[in-house]
Amino acid sequence: MPGVKVRRVFGEVLAGHLLVDDSVYRNPDFEFAAAHVMSPPFRPKANKEALWRGLQSGDLQTTATDHCCFCADQKAMGKDDFRKIPNGTGGIEDRMHVLWTHGVNTGRLTMSEFVAVTSTNSAKIFNIYPRKGIIAAGSDADLAIFDPQATHTISAKTHHQKVDLNIFEGMELTGINVATVSQGKVVYKDGDVRTERGVGRYVDRPCFAPYYSAVEKRSSATAPISVDRSS
Amino acid sequence: MSVIIKGGTVVNADQSFRADVYCDDGIIQAVGPDMDAPLGVDVVDAGGCYVMPGGIDPHTHMQLPFMGTVASEDFFSGTTAGAVGGTTMIIDFVIPGPQEDVLETYHKWRGWAEKSTTDYSFHVAITWWDDSVPDAMGTLCRDYGVNSFKHFMAYKGAIMADDEILVNSFTRARELGALCTVHAESGELVDHFQTKIFESGITGPEGHPQSRPPQVEGEAANRAIRFAQMIDVPLYVVHNSCAQSLNEIARARREGQTSIWRSIGGTSAG
Asked: What are the structural domains, with CATH classification, of chain A?
């Protein structure tokens, strides 16, 4: 991709770590605090801005969720011992939305940078580009269509995730996904969910991604040397 | 099945422009202005909207068996929730338990994922080591389209990859042309602090962040980065949560692991 260079150490950040801080663990309600138990945990506030800067500078290239849902009855396994609280929180439905509202709308990210950190960079790093991660003839017809004027308030009462608490509860969004195309079919439009069980395909990801060419050259330049003492 | 997205602004990672998008047979067939919609084609009016590549979430755990229970979101419900939010692909994780056969575990997860509504792929975690594991890694890369291996540096006594496993697995991944990924938290230190904090009488969820401070993440990130540097394998650090790990990545990218700059573009030479 013209203009974007990355090196051989890549970094991912979760939507949750960009927007939630460790005050959740001091909440007097066990259920609320336990619902936020994940590893690594949510951090003191200052880290959030550092992570945003990492995304802006390119030191972090991808955003993810670590979507791993456990409900209150499961979290209760650690009622008397925090070490037994199942680690995990949700967010797969919200990642793009919160990145748009808090990334694009705040001026931290351009729209193209938003696309890079939510799709293109993962496609490149995991070597499925340009099948995924770009709108171009010949690429998979997987699309997200955002209406920048549309608004929504995140709530566990209305989300589609199978978990009883949303870590972004109450967050007001401007600019939301109004239609989704997967494999060339409209699978979501204006609140109407049309996904079909079992139509998702396993995607092969070949080894030796393009960045490996640099690794190969570097390795041959730094191969161990021996000294000939036979004479 | 054909669909045309009309009147929107296409946003790619390099540029944005007004264009319609015509899709047929699961593939984008054409991108251009003012296309005519052929008869019988599903038309989506994207006036005033931005049309973007579907999101890829490279880190999910659908229906994961973990800590004595199973994650409540399965591959069907999870990929559906993703689609509602504009995410059209996930990369989930195959995680063998200690001594659990790697290939068998991979096939077990593939079976679970068959109910997915959108496309998916798998990283495979290396959680233990014997002679069968490098063979399995080779088979996964050659025959099953796996190009990334995950290492949990946390969760001592369960799925933690210790230093010996890291060296073995990173070296094998390097031979195979695969990417190594790490969950960077020092399992030793977390285990130590968990016991200490619990025994001090703190049993509630506030003990969780206190037993895994940012320093344990910074230490593990640095260790993995240094291992990867010396074994010369590309490394991907998952879920950076704090300045400590971010600083290690930034340092690496500016120092020893930054001596070679390359575009990761599939077509550009860098």
From this structure: 12-194 (3.20.20.140)
Tens-place pLDDT, residues B54-111: 999 999 999 999 999 999 999 999 999 999 999 999 999 999 999 999 999 999 999 9
> Cβ of A87 and B217 within 8 Å?
no
Tell how strand B9-11 and strand B16-18 pair up.
Answer: antiparallel
Most A-contacting residue of B75, B89, B114 (CB-CB within 10 A), to test interface:
B89
Backbone phi and psi for residue B20, each to the nearest 5 degrees, phi listed first: -90, 155
pLDDT at A26 exceeding the cut of 80: yes
Quote the ipTM score.
0.95
In chain B the domains, ranked by start, together with CATH numbers, are 2-51 (2.30.40.10), 55-258 (3.20.20.140)
- A119-154 tens-digit pLDDT: 999 999 999 999 999 999 999 999 999 999 999 999
CB-nearest partner of B239 from A2, A66, A197: A66
Closest chain A C-alpha to B247 CA, distance in angstroms: 9
> Is residue B150 helix, strand or coil?
strand
Give pTM, 2 decimals: 0.95
Helix axes B102-113, B132-143, angle to 10 degrees: 40
B14 reaches A (C-beta below 8 A): yes
* DSSP element (H, E) containing B96: none
| Structure token pair of residue A148 | 């920048």
Q: How many CA atoms lie within 13 A of A59 on its CB side?
A: 22
Q: Is the pLDDT of residue B212 over 60?
A: yes
Write the residue in A7, A22, A88 that is nearest to B61 by C-beta. A88
Distance CA B221, CA A106 (A): 30
Cβ contact A182–B183 (<8 Å):
no
Rounded to whole angstroms, how far apart are CA atoms A193 and A4? 35
Give the minimum alpha-carbon distance from A229 to chain B in angstroms, rounded to a whole number.
27
Angstrom distances, CA of residue A222 to CA of B166, B167, B229: 21, 18, 12
**Does A127 sit within 8 Å of B28, measured CB to CB?**
no
Three-state secondary-structure class, residue A65: coil
Question: Tell me, what amino acid is at B61?
Answer: H
